[in-house]
Specification:
The structure is a single chain. With 762 residues, the protein is of the alpha/beta class. 60% of the residues lie in helices and 10% in strands. It has 30 helices and 14 strands. The relative contact order is 0.10.
Length: 762
């Protein structure tokens, strides 16, 4: 199976911290583990942060905050708003916030600076107070500046010290100022409130003055427009002969009068026609029928008999008729007197008939006159209607012109009224703001806040300390725990070999004793390579027993006599592991041989048999027999085949992959139960890759906390055949006391107790 390269993760809990599935207890455990690992760094950074906070409190100058309160009186604003020419906006929440920005504006700041002559005070135009200001003055000495620069500097300082905020959701604004002097702080806070009120009054006065000037120009313009519009109305009336009296047009009055006259004329014509018809009915009768008419006239003839002449003749006729009736009865019907009376009656009848005909002609003349008058009025009415229709069409345009003239005139009158109000307001300005609380001298300092500064320093110190500790942990690219080895390399960690102390390096034997050993080809028994035998009850020796058990268990499944020991880079302790493992196996009774297979750097030979003159190369070349080259260990009966490099070898991989090497190994396999070969590292040379034909399994040594994870992964990934035959990893040179801090389950603490109980030595 090919090992996949991945980014190194030296501390797995940092990845776990990003997971939302972790419980609070697990998170606390991660930070507790980090604290144990980096306690010195955390304490140092935290102490420096707290010390910085204390230094700041000691060097920072004390500042005092004085506060005044302003009320934005909305009722007063509403009282004057109806009379306002400039149309003030009603105060709401946003308007109050806007007034806070006005308080912080440069105009207010400049006004206060000028009123209180702040350009002459060092606090506003001098250097910054405290240690920082002293250092800046020393590094950047100030030069004489102009009056404008002094004022701008004072304004900037003032705006930095000004504090303006709204109290809750009320219309009260709190004005505060920070100063080195408590009296000066109160004075400036009150001056700021007064400057704001004056600024509001001035702003309203200027706005009203500008409105008055604009109104005056607008009034002149509207007056001209109104005059022009009214003149256009008069000219249009003149052009269209439109005349009105009393608010009504003459044509309309004439039409109304003609309508009244035509009604009267028609009534008069009907009356004249009726009289003519009645008189005509009378004149149609025979003269002999007049007697009946005269004696009992019907209502239709009564109007005609009202004539004075006819009434006189009728009276005479009636008198003669009475006499004729009397005499006729007395004297007889044919009496001369009676006949004369009848003749007189006949003449009266004729006179009445003549008079009736004359009246008929009069009535006929009256009827004709009435008819002529009605027709004349009818013609006048038709003419008036026609003329009125023309006038109505022109009146549409006239109404537009008149409406325009009235509009301009109304606007002119309204603007004149507003102009008069603006003149009055210029002499009576008002503002909605008023001071409800004057600033007084503060009794205690406001800055710096000792509790707040120390709390921030402590909190930031803790955050920074843990941040630095995490960065240090993340920057460490080495393996720290067996779990990390198994997680990253996907293989088992056989054992954790502790780092030996300085007392493990025993002194070398005397020269005479050393020469006797060389003559007998006995291995050196000093130093760390003999620790597993010299300290059999140590954790160091127990770790190698664990490796031996793993080798034996692995041999149950397949052939595992020949074990190659290698590492990623030099100085990881692979030779130490190989020597101590071989000695432990031999000391336990196993028949074992240790071969120095590092042809380019035979460090194992230099440590165990530095005086050897015959070794692996001589055996492979056939110059010497294997028995002549083997050295032995008197304490464990371990056989050792050294590597004597008399010259630098350029093709060492070819030697390890040669048939002679395989033949020699096959011969050794028949004699020994355990064959351990100390191989070169994987990264510098390719020799290990050439040993896959002779090695049954590989033991991979990794130095604790030093060897980069990515380098190890890359080395194993470049040698897939080695990785496939990997027996496991030995985590070497482990500092167990520190290693406990990297273990999430504190298993090493329990392991330490167990070792102590069974009498193991550290």
């Amino acid at each position: 199976m090919m090992l996949q390269l991945r980014n190194a993760k030296p501390v797995a809990e940092f990845n776990a911290l990003r997971s939302t599935a972790m419980s609070p207890g697990e998170i606390l455990g991660v930070f507790a583990s980090l604290t144990r690992r980096r306690l010195a760094v955390i304490v140092l950074v935290f102490s420096l942060s707290v010390m910085c906070g204390a230094v700041y409190l000691y060097t920072a100058p004390a500042k005092f905050l004085a506060q005044a309160e302003l009320l934005i009186d909305t009722k007063k604003s509403q009282l004057f708003q109806q009379q306002s020419v400039i149309g003030d906006i009603a105060m709401d929440s946003a308007a109050v916030d806007s007034q806070i920005q006005v308080l912080k504006s440069e105009n207010i700041a400049t006004s206060v600076v000028k009123d209180l002559h702040l350009t002459s005070e060092p606090e506003f135009v001098g250097s910054k107070p405290g240690l920082v200001g002293t250092i800046l003055d020393y590094l950047l000495p100030s030069t004489p500046t102009s009056e404008f620069d002094l004022q701008q500097r004072a304004v900037d300082t003032f705006r930095k010290g000004l504090v303006a905020r709204r109290i809750g959701t009320s219309y009260v604004i709190e004005i505060g100022f920070l100063s080195l002097s408590p009296d000066r702080a109160a004075e400036i806070a009150n001056a700021t409130a007064d400057a704001y009120i004056v600024d509001q009054l001035e702003a309203k006065y200027q706005a009203t003055r500008r409105a008055s000037a604009w109104l005056q120009d607008r009034i002149q313009e509207l007056r001209q427009q109104a005059s022009t519009a009214e003149r256009a109305v008069l000219d249009f009336k003149k052009e269209n002969n439109i005349v009105d009296t009393g608010g009504r047009l003459i044509g309309e009055q004439q039409l109304a009068e003609l309508n009244s006259q035509i009604v009267l004329a028609r009534a008069a014509t009907a009356e004249a026609h009726a009289r003519l018809n009645r008189i005509s009915d009378i004149t149609k009768h025979d003269i002999t029928d007049i007697d009946n008419i005269l004696r009992s006239p019907d209502p239709a003839v009564a109007d005609a008999l009202r004539n004075e002449v006819i009434n006189k003749l009728r009276s005479e006729f009636l008198d003669l008729a009475n006499r004729e009736a009397v005499f006729s009865a007395r004297l007889g019907h044919d009496h001369l007197i009676v006949v004369n009376l009848r003749n007189q009656m006949f003449e009266i009848r004729r006179s009445i008939m003549d008079e009736l005909k004359r009246i008929q002609e009069t009535f006929k003349s009256d009827y004709e006159i009435a008819m002529a008058r009605e027709q004349s009025i009818q013609n006048s009415l038709a003419e008036a209607v026609s003329q009125n229709q023309t006038t109505n069409q022109a009146q549409i345009s006239l109404k537009d012109l008149d409406s325009k003239a009235q509009t301009f005139r109304a606007l002119h009158d309204n603007f004149v009224q507003r102009y008069m109000e603006s003149i009055q307001q210029q002499s009576f300005p008002f503002t909605e703001a008023r001071v409800i609380t004057h600033a007084t001298r503060p009794r205690i300092k406001s800055q710096p806040n000792t509790i707040l500064v120390m709390a921030l320093a402590s909190a930031s110190g803790l955050l920074l300390a843990f941040g630095v500790a995490m960065l240090i942990d993340i920057s460490e690219r080495g393996f720290r725990t067996p779990e990390q080895v198994e997680s990253e390399l996907k293989t088992i960690c056989l054992a954790v070999v502790p780092l030996l102390g300085a007392d493990a390096h025993a002194p070398k034997p005397a020269a005479a004793e050393r020469s006797d050993r060389v003559a007998a080809r006995h291995l050196d028994q000093s130093g760390v390579l003999f620790s597993v035998v010299g300290s059999p009850f140590s954790r160091f020796a127990e770790a190698f027993r664990t490796i031996k058990v793993s080798i034996d268990v692995f041999a149950l499944a397949k052939r595992n006599k020949i074990v190659g020991v290698t590492s990623t880079v030099p100085n990881e302790g692979k030779s130490t592991v190989a020597a101590n493992l071989a000695r432990l196996i031999a000391h336990a009774g196993g028949k074992a041989i240790l071969i120095d297979g590092d042809l380019r750097n035979p460090s194992l030979t230099r440590a165990l048999a530095p005086q050897a003159e015959i070794g692996l190369l001589e055996v492979l070349s056939g110059k010497k027999a294997l028995a002549d080259a083997i050295w032995s260990d008197t304490a464990t009966s371990l056989a050792f085949l050294p590597m004597v490099a008399k010259a630098r070898l350029s093709h060492s991989n070819e030697i390890l992959a040669s048939a002679a090497m395989k033949q020699m190994i096959d011969g050794i396999r028949e004699v020994y139960d355990y064959i351990l070969i100390d191989l070169p590292p994987l990264t510098p040379v390719v020799d290990v890759r050439a040993t896959t034909q002779i090695i049954d399994s590989y033991l991979f040594v990794v130095e604790w906390g030093k060897t980069d994870v990515e380098v190890v992964e890359r080395a194993l990934g470049s040698a897939p055949l080695v990785y496939e035959r990997l027996l496991g990893v030995v985590l070497n040179k482990a500092e167990l006391n520190r290693m406990r801090n990297y273990s999430g389950d504190a298993g090493y603490d329990y392991q330490s107790k167990y070792h102590e109980r069974y009498g193991f030595e550290d």
